[in-house]
């Protein structure tokens, strides 16, 4: 605990200097609960005292405060106070990773009275450690300091955690239960043409999307596929004209050829659903795609059709990726997503035998038999119409290049989030509004940026 608290105190000292210009003479408040999390805060307070910081602590359960930590703080000259006053920074040591539920009223009252930035110890108290859900009063931290490794809650509750800082405590940690690809891992797997490649060798993507009503969705899905890799994109459906007007390089047809007809063109991976509507025609196209033996992404209206008739998947063996938002996942499973988005995605993945990419600020990728993955958006500017259509096209492009479903989904979401950040500009706290078209235009720059990390 002392090693962890030492690292925590170093981060707090650095933040004091960055935010106030000094360490000595500054004030830090501690909110201390009954467990080890409170102990970490108390020990860190003791170390900060040695650097001339005034440290006040509120004990939320005075009888159960960590005895050694409390003794250390007192010995170092820290004060136990009934209220925090006006510190420069506050350490949240109320509950740790084994806590559950929102803040209790007394803790919530102290937190509500704080004007200073809060540094959370391990996780912001009141946020559910398993799901990242915030179901009542909870700390919203400027920074969360955790020990040894990031935990799932740091990805799931990014907005409550603020920045994350991992303090090395010299332990051999188990592999995280929620995997996250790094920029370099995405870049290393991205399909890149070599000297012997030509337009067919990197995979042909088939996009069945759009309708008279939703012409733009077809353009965005096709654009997502075209912008993600070299290789051919074929588009089928009621908005084929709009696609070729925008992308002369796309091969288009108004109808989907019968696979048995002999004239069926080669497609290595499919995207079906964006803007295609839920008509009988759309249903028969979806059925025809799902009957082919090629990896497929089903999105948007395709998901609504599949939810209404799961028998569309009968006999299917080839890899399948479903890309629902929360509303579409609820349609697929018949129940609201709830707070535990990992469990909801995993349940749908098992039910449909598919990789499920559940979209959102934290996008979850669940695949049968594999650890769930997360992609953190780090900004919310992508919450605008049509951005999901682009993601479907990007995922289909990676599937058609031969990537396994789980990787294709995670890599597409990763690059999509990067494109949103490039288009919006700035960091998590700033940037400006973007349209789906602007996100799409930034996809090549996102891939370049990822590849430059190699
Ligand atoms: N320019 C275009 O042509 C566009 C076409 N689009 C296509 O339009 C078709 C229909 O889209 P709709 O937006 O009507 O259908 P949705 O199924 O996306 O939305 C229907 C309802 O679902 C719920 N919902 C939507 N997003 C949710 C979320 N993240 N969490 C929880 N609930 C949510 C809302 O109650 C919403 O009213 C789709 O095929 C889509 O691909 C959209 O992508 C937008 C752009
Ligand atoms: N609050 C948010 N923060 C970050 N990304 C978001 C947020 N809300 C939605 N997104 C992303 O924007 C896209 C929206 O997709 P979707 O809901 O299918 O919209 P559409 O059907 O209009 O294209 C997804 O990639 C999703 O992850």
TrEMBL record:
Residue span, YjeF N-terminal domain? 1-177
Locate the residues binding AMP: 359-363, 388
As its record notes, the protein acts as a catalyst of:
(6R)-NADHX = (6S)-NADHX; (6S)-NADPHX + ADP = AMP + phosphate + NADPH + H(+); (6R)-NADPHX = (6S)-NADPHX; (6S)-NADHX + ADP = AMP + phosphate + NADH + H(+)
Name the PROSITE patterns for this protein.
YJEF_C_3, YJEF_N
Q: A Gene Ontology MF term for this entry?
A: ADP-dependent NAD(P)H-hydrate dehydratase activity
Domain (YjeF C-terminal): residue spans on this chain: 182-450
Q: Where does (6S)-NADPHX bind?
A: 217, 275, 325, 389
The alphabetical list of record keywords is: ATP-binding, Isomerase, Lyase, Metal-binding, Multifunctional enzyme, NAD, NADP, Nucleotide-binding, Potassium
Q: What is its EC number?
A: 4.2.1.136
Q: What InterPro entries has UniProt attached to this entry?
A: CARKD, Nnr, Ribokinase-like, YjeF_N_dom, YjeF_N_dom_sf
What is an annotated GO biological process for this record, any one? nicotinamide nucleotide metabolic process
Required cofactor names: K(+); Mg(2+)
- Give the record's cofactor note, including how many are bound: Binds 1 potassium ion per subunit.
UniProt entry tagged with the keyword NAD: yes
Pfam families per record = Carb_kinase, YjeF_N
Q: What does this protein do?
A: Bifunctional enzyme that catalyzes the epimerization of the S- and R-forms of NAD(P)HX and the dehydration of the S-form of NAD(P)HX at the expense of ADP, which is converted to AMP. This allows the repair of both epimers of NAD(P)HX, a damaged form of NAD(P)H that is a result of enzymatic or heat-dependent hydration.
Q: How does it assemble?
A: Homotetramer.
Which NCBIfam families does the record cross-reference, listed alphabetically?
yjeF_cterm
The record, for PANTHER family, names:
ATP-DEPENDENT (S)-NAD(P)H-HYDRATE DEHYDRATASE, ATP-DEPENDENT (S)-NAD(P)H-HYDRATE DEHYDRATASE FAMILY MEMBER
Give the similarity note: In the C-terminal section; belongs to the NnrD/CARKD family.
In its UniProt entry, what is this protein called?
Answer: ADP-dependent (S)-NAD(P)H-hydrate dehydratase
What organism is recorded for this protein? Lolliginicoccus lacisalsi
Q: What is the lineage of its organism?
A: Bacteria, Bacillati, Actinomycetota, Actinomycetes, Mycobacteriales
């Amino acid at each position: 605990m002392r090693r962890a608290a030492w690292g925590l105190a170093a981060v707090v000292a650095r933040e004091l200097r960055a935010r106030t210009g000094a360490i000595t003479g500054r004030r830090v408040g501690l909110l201390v609960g009954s467990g080890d999390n409170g102990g970490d805060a108390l020990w860190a307070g003791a170390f900060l005292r040695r650097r001339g910081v005034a440290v006040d602590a509120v004990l939320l359960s005075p009888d159960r405060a960590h005895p050694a930590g409390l003794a250390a703080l007192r010995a170092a000259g820290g004060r136990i106070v009934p209220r925090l006053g006006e510190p420069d920074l506050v350490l949240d040591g109320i509950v740790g990773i084994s806590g559950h539920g929102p803040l209790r009223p007394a803790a919530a009252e102290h937190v509500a009275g704080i004007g200073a930035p809060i540094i959370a110890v391990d996780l912001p108290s009141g946020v559910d450690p398993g799901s990242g859900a915030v179901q009542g009063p909870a700390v919203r931290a400027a920074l969360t300091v955790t020990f040894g490794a990031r935990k799932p809650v740091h990805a799931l509750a990014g907005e409550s955690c603020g920045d994350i800082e991992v303090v090395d405590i010299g332990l051999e940690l188990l592999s995280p239960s929620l995997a996250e690809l790094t920029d370099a891992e995405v870049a290393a797997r991205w399909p890149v043409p070599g000297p012997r490649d030509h337009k067919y060798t990197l995979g042909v993507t088939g996009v069945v999307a759009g309708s008279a009503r939703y012409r733009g969705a077809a353009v965005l899905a096709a654009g997502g596929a075209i912008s993600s890799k070299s290789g051919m994109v074929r588009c089928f459906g009621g908005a084929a004209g709009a696609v070729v007007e925008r992308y002369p390089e796309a091969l288009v047809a108004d109808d989907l050829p019968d696979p048995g007809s002999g004239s069926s063109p080669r497609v290595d991976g499919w995207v079906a659903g964006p803007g295609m509507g839920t008509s009988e025609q759309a249903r028969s196209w979806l059925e025809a795609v799902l009957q082919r033996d090629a990896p497929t992404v089903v999105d948007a209206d395709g998901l609504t059709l599949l939810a209404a008739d799961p028998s569309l998947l009968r006999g299917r063996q080839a890899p399948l990726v479903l890309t629902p938002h929360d509303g579409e996942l609820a349609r697929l499973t018949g129940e609201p997503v709830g707070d535990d988005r990992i469990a909801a995605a995993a349940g749908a993945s098992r039910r449909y035998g598919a990789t499920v990419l559940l979209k959102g600020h934290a996008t979850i990728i669940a695949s049968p038999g594999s650890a769930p993955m997360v992609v953190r958006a780090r900004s919310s500017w992508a919450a605008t119409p049509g951005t999901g259509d682009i993601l479907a096209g990007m995922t289909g492009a990676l599937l058609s290049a031969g990537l396994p479903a789980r990787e294709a989904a995670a890599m597409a979401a990763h690059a999509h989030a990067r494109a949103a950040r490039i288009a919006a500009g700035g960091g998590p706290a700033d940037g400006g509004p973007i349209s789906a078209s602007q996100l799409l235009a930034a996809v090549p720059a996102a891939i370049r940026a990822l590849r430059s990390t190699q």
